[in-house]
Amino acid sequence: MSYKKRFTHKSIFNLFALTLITSMLLSSCSILGFEFSPEATSTPFVSPRVVVGSDINPFLSPLAEPIIIKDTSIAKGRAVVKGRLFSTKTNAPLVNAVVRLAEVYYANDAQAAEKSGGVYALDNAFSPSAFTDVDGNFVFTDIEARDYVLIVGDIFGTWALALDESQEKPTVWSAIERSVTDIGAVHIDY
Fold first, then answer.
1. What pLDDT does residue 173 have?
2. How far, in Å, CA of 25 to CA of 69, rounded?
3. 26 and 107 share a domain?
4. Would you say residue 24 lies in a domain?
5. Mean pLDDT over residues 171-182, rounded?
6. Is 52 a member of any domain?
7. Residue 8 lies in domain
8. What is the dihedral of CA 115, 120, 122, 127, to 10 degrees?
């Protein structure tokens, strides 16, 4: 019985000591100028702007097609997708919005080549997800190279799909193997 009491007191002492040491390390880091932020930080991405007449219009996408840059440092079968989100309701960048990629599945190769007739599925646990930054930029790193549909928001609450020009069907983007795909500015009804 005395062994159990010593073990319990020792465990509590070890936990207290560990908490004290961690607290001291964190406070010494902030004294030296290192700060810990609970928010994720990313490399800023500046989306190009379109000049219409004499006005700069950041809400038009300058990209007719996504820009694809080959990068051999990306693992085989993997890809990177980035872009910038704007709200069609407010004409402003979507800040701290949840962005999800739903996988697109096709019945045959002909449908896959035409990017038509497929269905998309969002797996709440495993589909790629990211957050937009203060300028609406988002980046998906190390995702499976395949076709995706972009969904913004909470799938159990308010959400929206990125639609094509007809505003009737979701836009399908391809994450190209060992490449960085920049899909540019995406305007979404959110």
1. 92
2. 41
3. no
4. yes
5. 94
6. no
7. 1-35
8. -30
Same domain, 30 and 73: no
At residue 97, what is the residue type?
A
On the 0-12 / 13-18 / 19+ scale of CB atoms within 10 A, 99 is: buried
Amino acid at 41: T
The answer on 93 and 152 residing in a single domain is: yes
pLDDT tens-digit map of 147-164: 999 999 988 889 999 998
Residues 12 and 103 in one domain: no
Q: Environment class of residue 55 by beta-carbon count within 10 Å: exposed (0-12), middle (13-18) or buried (19+)?
A: exposed
- Total residues belonging to the chain: 190
Please compute Rg for the chain using Cα positions. Answer: 23
pLDDT at 59: 45
Is the model's pLDDT at 61 over the cut of 80?
no
The CATH number of residue 134's host domain is 2.60.40.10
Taking the C-alpha atoms of residue 148 and residue 20, their distance in angstroms, rounded to an integer, is 47
